[in-house]
Amino acid sequence: MFKYLIKRLLHAAVSVILVVGIVMLLIYSLMDKNSIFQNDQRWTKISNNVKEEYKYQQWERYGYVDYVSYSDYLDILVKKKEITPEKKAEVVLFGYEDKYDTEEVHTYVQKFRTTYLSKGYNIVRLKAMRLSEDSDILKTNGEQKLFAYKNINVFQRMWKYFTGIISIDNIHYADDVVGKRGISFTFFDPVYGGKTFSPAIMGNGTKHKYLLYFDNRFPFIHQNLIEFKLGTSYSISEGVDISDYMTQEQGRLVTKTVYYPTGYVEESSDNLHELVYIYNSNNDDFTRTRFSDNYTNTGTYKMGKSMIAYSFIIGLIATIISYLLAIPLGILMARKKDKLADKIGTIYIVFIMAVPSLAYIFMFRQIGSSLFGLPTLFDTNTSNLLVYFLPIISLALPSIAGLMKWLRRYMIDQMNSDYVKFARAGGLSETEIFTKHIFKNAAIPIVQGIPASILACLTGAIITERVYTVPGSGKLLTDAISATDNGVIVGLTFFYAILSVVSLILGDILMAMFDPRISFSTKGR
Questions:
Q1: Torsion sign over Cα 304, 305, 308, 312
Q2: Nearest CA to 317 among 397, 427, 205, 396?
Q3: Paired residues of 168 in beta bridges
Q4: Which residues pair with 240 in a beta bridge?
Q5: SS3 for 384?
Q6: Residue 211 has pLDDT above 50, yes or no
Q7: Is 493 within 8 Å of 23 (Cβ atoms)?
Q8: N or C: which end of the chain has fewer CB within 10 A?
Q9: Could you tell me if 275 and 258 are in contact, meaning their C-beta atoms sit under 8 angstroms apart?
């Protein structure tokens, strides 16, 4: 088993890398990169040189090119202590065009050119756009620009993506800290006023103030030490990583009694467990009243759950209902083959398969609303559990039909096997034959699909969530494709690929546990 798992994990890793690589190749090679501007409001408001520079800046954000401005280059020199900030201020302003550069500015511009040309970059210098040749007045957005850019190949892009997926917080993240850098442990979390037993691990110098903590939100224990970065969104959610976007709470703000680090107490929606360091942010009276250092960026408490939580809850309950109903009904259809129960079940299966999913979802929605008064629109700000009912039923019904169909087919195939004939000849009852022999063998492929069914709940259901306005994760991929949000498309591809390979491995393990005859080890002769 161990060798099998290692082999499958290696194959899975290669498969994931290939899938992500192919998607990157399709996005960045075949799609028009100017499509990222179709919903960009700023793009329509700017012009001339500013627009040209903005184009390359956005191409960098979306992963098409590597972009460096002349000012960025000088910042690098300051960071390396090759020039002083004062010197940068003197040479950062270059002329309307080459001939107007001072001798000192010309020297640094040439260094910029030489440095980036040697690295394979293209240098772009846009002359200032003046109203006339002898005028010092510039056209709107006509300022002179100097920058370098280089197209990124798929291998560089993949390397950058995969090496940036996992980020581990450390005590050297913050530029300046109050007190000593390090990690501390407490049994009495300051968030609760230091009076409630609640263990927490806190950092000073780290990105996050709380590295591990407990609260009353599922799964009740949370950590910020290791972050998984799937890909930054620039259209769906400006500048937010898709993993954070999927796990952020939604809905109306909720206020609680908040105990700030300075001892200040007030009713607020600030979630101090999500405190993040921001350089020089504790610089006004309002902030200093509440915070004693630069860990000032808080999260918020909200009424609703995250996208992925809504999708998983609805999907998991629907999956459980599907298996609880489909297994006995599938067995009944097999035992009563060609009789009334089998015919009724077959009609249901054919109906679900023949009618478009959108049609029967709207039909169930209308029946639930008209006959039973069930809510048809999801509300993140309500505690009414009935909002879950129709989405769950709409997801469960097709799953029930699918499981019934396959279980019936597998059991009927097993009914004609030789071991069934021997069992009957041995005097076993039909009930014993079905439960102890036929069902056990027929259920093997059904059991293998359980992990896939559960993990698929994390991806959400596109049609169901749109019909019932469930704020789940099902619509993310279609929204990202519509908005040409490349980071989200790649991130979700990686996420779905990981879920797929994990579900296959777990399915094989579960199948081997269910049937001891299945072995993944091989013996040489």
A1: negative
A2: 396
A3: 226
A4: 233
A5: coil
A6: yes
A7: yes
A8: C
A9: no
Distances (CA, A) of 348 to 260, 315, 394, 406, 449: 59, 21, 14, 14, 22
Q: Report the distance separating Cα 87 and Cα 79, nearest Å.
A: 13
Strand-pairing partners, residue 270, are 300
pLDDT band at residue 525 using 50, 70 and 90 as cut-offs: very low
Q: Are 172 and 205 in contact (CB under 8 A)?
A: yes
Report the pLDDT value the prediction gives residue 329, as an integer from 0 to 100. Answer: 93
**CA torsion sign, 240 to 243 to 246 to 247?**
negative
Phi first, then psi: what are they for 468, rounded to 5°? -100, 10
* Helix, strand or coil, per DSSP, at residue 277: strand
Q: Token pair for residue 345?
A: 């079940």
**Max mean pLDDT range (4-13, 202-211, 460-469):** 202-211
Instruction: Reduce the DSSP state of residue 286 to 3 states and report it.
Output: helix
pLDDT at 324 over 90: yes
Strands (E), 104-262: 122-126, 145-151, 166-168, 182-186, 200-204, 210-214, 221-223, 226-228, 232-233, 240-241, 256-259
Cα 360 to chain centroid distance, Å, stands at 30
pLDDT tens column, 215-224: 887 778 999 9
Three-state SS string across 432-493, please? HHHHHHHHHHHCHHHHHCHHHHHHHHHHCCHHHHHHCCCCCCCCHHHHHHHCCCHHHHHHHH
Query: 462 near 478, Cβ under 8 Å?
Result: yes
How many Å apart are CA 38 and CA 486, to the nearest integer?
A: 14
CA pair distance 222, 226, nearest whole angstrom:
11
pTM of the model: 0.85
